[in-house]
Amino acid sequence: MSFTTLPKIGMGTFRLKGNDAREAVKSALSLGYRHIDTAQMYENEAEVGDGITSSGIPRRDIFLTTKIWHDKLHASDLINSLHDSLARLKTDHVDLTLIHWPSPGDEVPMEEYLGALRDARREGLTEHIGISNFTCAQMDQAKEILGDTPILTNQVEVHPFLANRKVVEHAQKLGITVTGYMPLAVGKVMEDETLQRIASERNVTPAQIAIAWVASRGVVPIPSSTRPSHQKANLDALDMQLSDDEIRAIDALDRGERIANPGFAPDWD
Q: Is 113 a catalytic residue?
């Protein structure tokens, strides 16, 4: 089956290693996840591939995303590294390939690496292409470079403490779906009083409230979890409709708290 859009939730695999990664992917797929997100930099593509293979779910029913690290942005490096990713993932194509970060200090011109990514799509190595951690200006530039080739997503950090409104709204205006990573703010949502209050009123967890809030904004959350009970709860959170009052209360938690902010990050909006 060919996916034309991103599934509504994905299983993130950042920081999952070895057997944990293998088992987490297998369990997520058995619970009904159909979107698995990895990256070259996570150093777990082989284990993610094992989890998919051993799950018994046909590869064509799974939406698989990987990301090109910023040391592989020169055109020939990019294509070669994607071939390596496919070998590790034990598949002949991925459904989505993202540029993990824009080239630090524009060392590699955007035309070069987005052009190579478009070539990878033409060669059938990836069904869709996209970007990650791109600012509003960088999205505009990417859109201009790629022309008719659609950018499926911009994957950025989104959680109640970093609503990332400007980028989310700009992407949506450009017709680019936003994927939100770290939707649970590496567990910090569990300690927040507002989220705890709303969760207890609904008899759910603060994590479920955070995921429901991300999804209510049209953003695709990709929470990472190794425990099947948490994975299932995260999946169930998509069925929750938050009230306007609840959304307003969660909106008010935005404090611009950015967790993923390496030295080579772009100048954020």
A: no
